[in-house]
Recover the amino acids of this structure.
């Protein structure tokens, strides 16, 4: 019991050293591998490369933060367990002190005088009584030593556990600060990427407004969902007239972000086959930096929120390479894959260029309807 608590405290003290360090987080923030294909924007290749690199930084920083947060939570659980053990030892101390005091009083009682052995022998009525008294005295002495030694060991262990716990807490606070700093940097990247996407979107909308011929353009081909018979975007003779409202998705607090968007998306999906999937959409958006409204809105246009799926758990009219439609084993699997696919291939939010690529035959109508659904979430 005593040594197992000490080993537990020692393990806790060493645990924070294995938590992701600020240096590792810095590496995650500065790594800029390229995605292929790049995000779809009407911009130069250099701008596309910049946006792709920013997206990678967001995902790397968010992954590092999530990893640190999980390890910090695990460490806190061990600290809580260790504190419970300390409280248990402290609860036992008064009883142990009473036992030691009692043993010492008994020992003093039988050892008072200059020569207790002679006193016992003189006062004993028989040799048997003398032997019995000596044995009892030895037992009292041994018990006193054991009780006092146990008390001392428990007190020593208590102080060691408290010191190690304090050290672990100090390391925990340092790791929390590192994770918070890294998250702040990641959220700055998220804001920059979102602002860039909005700038690109505004510029392309302005161009389309100025060029009516381009706005009425009809593209050929299938795209991702071009042949999805369940899609609600069927009008080929339209122009873009809907603007996506700013959803303010840049919260730097994980719990606040997840709680807010889980609730908002659950309200949007209520009564549909995808009801209750708000948490999965929120987590996928947090991990990729994608607007959390985008994938649910596409699911509404392509399958009426999962009522008319193209294939198993495929609510997005998502075609498969080589023909047919993609399928998934669960909503969670499909949502995670689709949100990651949007981030890797289309950027962080809806744009006209993304609409052209996702649903070429009726892309203007698709854009208007997806944008309108996003504004409802």
């Amino acid at each position: 019991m005593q040594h197992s608590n000490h080993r537990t405290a020692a393990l806790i003290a060493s645990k924070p050293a294995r938590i992701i360090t600020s240096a590792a987080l810095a590496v995650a923030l500065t790594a800029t591998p390229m995605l292929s294909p790049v995000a779809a924007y009407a911009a130069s290749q250099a701008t596309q490369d910049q946006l792709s690199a920013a997206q990678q930084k967001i995902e790397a920083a968010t992954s590092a933060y999530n990893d640190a947060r999980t390890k910090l939570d695990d460490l806190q659980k061990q600290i809580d367990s260790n504190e419970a053990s300390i409280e248990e030892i402290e609860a036992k101390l008064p009883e142990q002190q009473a036992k030691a005091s009692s043993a010492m009083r008994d020992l003093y009682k039988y050892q008072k005088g200059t020569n207790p052995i002679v006193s016992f022998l003189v006062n004993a009525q028989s040799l048997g009584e003398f032997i019995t008294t000596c044995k009892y005295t030895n037992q009292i002495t041994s018990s006193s030593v054991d009780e006092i030694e146990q008390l001392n060991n428990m007190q020593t262990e208590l102080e060691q556990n408290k010191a190690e716990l304090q050290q672990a807490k100090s390391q925990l606070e340092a790791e929390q600060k590192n994770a918070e700093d890294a998250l702040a940097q990641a959220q700055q990247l998220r804001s920059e990427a979102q602002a860039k996407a909005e700038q690109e979107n505004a510029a392309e909308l302005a161009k389309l407004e100025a060029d009516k011929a381009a706005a009425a353009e009809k593209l050929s081909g299938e795209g991702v969902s071009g042949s999805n018979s369940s899609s609600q975007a069927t009008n080929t003779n339209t122009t873009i007239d809907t603007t996506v409202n700013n959803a303010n998705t840049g919260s730097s607090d994980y719990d606040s972000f997840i709680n807010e968007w889980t609730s908002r998306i659950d309200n949007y999906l209520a009564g549909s086959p995808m009801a209750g999937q708000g948490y999965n959409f929120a987590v996928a958006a947090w991990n990729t930096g994608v607007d959390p409204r985008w994938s649910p809105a596409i699911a509404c246009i392509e399958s009426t929120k999962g009522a008319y799926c193209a294939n198993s758990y495929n609510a997005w009219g998502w075609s498969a390479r080589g023909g047919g439609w993609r399928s998934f084993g669960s909503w969670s699997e499909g949502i995670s894959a689709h949100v990651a696919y949007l981030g890797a291939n289309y950027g962080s939010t809806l744009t006209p260029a993304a609409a052209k690529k996702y649903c070429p035959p009726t892309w203007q109508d698709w854009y208007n309807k997806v944008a309108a659904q996003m504004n409802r979430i």
